[in-house]
Design a protein that fits this description.
Length: 274
């Protein structure tokens, strides 16, 4: 396995880790926090690009958020924080962090926001429409506990981007980075591009997983995580080569079947295929 990533605060920049504990609802420390509008709606980097310019690192007592210009704030986990309603799917309420976090984030983003924490992921389910079973639980990820991508699929996408650009008489775009797709795990020992579409159960390190669905991609992938500037790729190329049901597809969502630790360098074994 090439890499493991967590996103402690939903929509903020990801964090590469050497290993991670697999929990029923996702990787430990992954997507347990979210930035909320005053009405409880989750604020996404789709609307506020500056969120991806912030990073969050888990700490013993909570999370530390940093800006690109060096500002930082340590936030304590609000185990007894105020309960507030939220519009996040299949979740009625979250706990609010201390007021200091709201003031600090609001100043950075130049808009009123609050920071919320999901105290118990068992209160949120994986939607049946996204491959969920009645016992599946979920952190604050959009649709599935983990997103798996492969380097072979990314290479194919980049090859398509170059070929399509040349066919249009355009300058080939820069190589697409995997960070655009915000994966949980990236697998590199796969020969065929998009082979992962057909995996049904697999083992990584000490944990087993079940395929839930292919991942449909949104406009957030067109945001360059380095510059925070949007563009047309990769959705333009995916639309030409990986579009059906009026959606474009890259990566697969998987659900843990057993706990365990996964680490960079672990072998990935496909147990069953479609």
């Amino acid at each position: 396995m090439a890499s493991v990533h967590i996103y402690p605060v939903k929509s903020l920049a990801g964090l590469s880790v050497v290993e991670a504990q697999v929990e029923p609802w996702g990787l430990r420390h992954d997507r347990r926090w979210a930035v909320l509008d005053p009405d409880g709606a989750r604020l996404s980097a789709r609307e506020e690009h500056r969120l991806q310019g912030l990073t969050a690192t888990p700490t013993n007592g909570g999370v530390e958020i940093k800006s690109r210009d060096g500002l930082s704030l340590a936030v304590q986990t609000p185990v007894a924080g105020e309960l507030v309603p939220t519009t996040i799917s299949r979740l009625e309420w979250m706990r609010l962090a201390a007021d200091e976090a709201h003031v600090w984030l609001s100043g950075l983003l130049e808009r009123p926001v609050r920071l919320g924490w999901l105290d118990d992921p068992r209160r949120r389910s994986v939607s049946e429409a996204h491959g969920g079973l009645p016992t599946d639980t979920l952190n604050l990820a959009d649709a599935g506990p983990l997103l798996l991508t492969t380097t072979s699929s990314l290479k194919q996408l980049n090859d398509w981007m170059v070929a399509d650009a040349l066919a249009r008489g355009a300058e080939p775009p820069s190589q697409m980075e995997m960070a655009r797709f915000r994966p949980s795990v990236v697998v590199d020992e796969v020969r065929e591009a998009f082979e992962e579409d057909g995996w049904r159960t697999l083992r990584i390190g000490a944990a087993d997983f079940r395929f839930a669905e292919r991942c449909d991609r949104c406009v957030m992938t067109t945001l360059d995580p380095r510059t925070l500037v949007g563009g047309k790729e990769p959705l333009r190329t995916l639309a030409a080569h990986r579009q059906w049901d009026h959606k474009t597809w890259f990566g697969v969502r998987v659900v843990p079947l057993s706990p365990g630790v996964i680490s960079v360098g672990d072998a990935v074994g496909v147990l069953t295929r479609a």
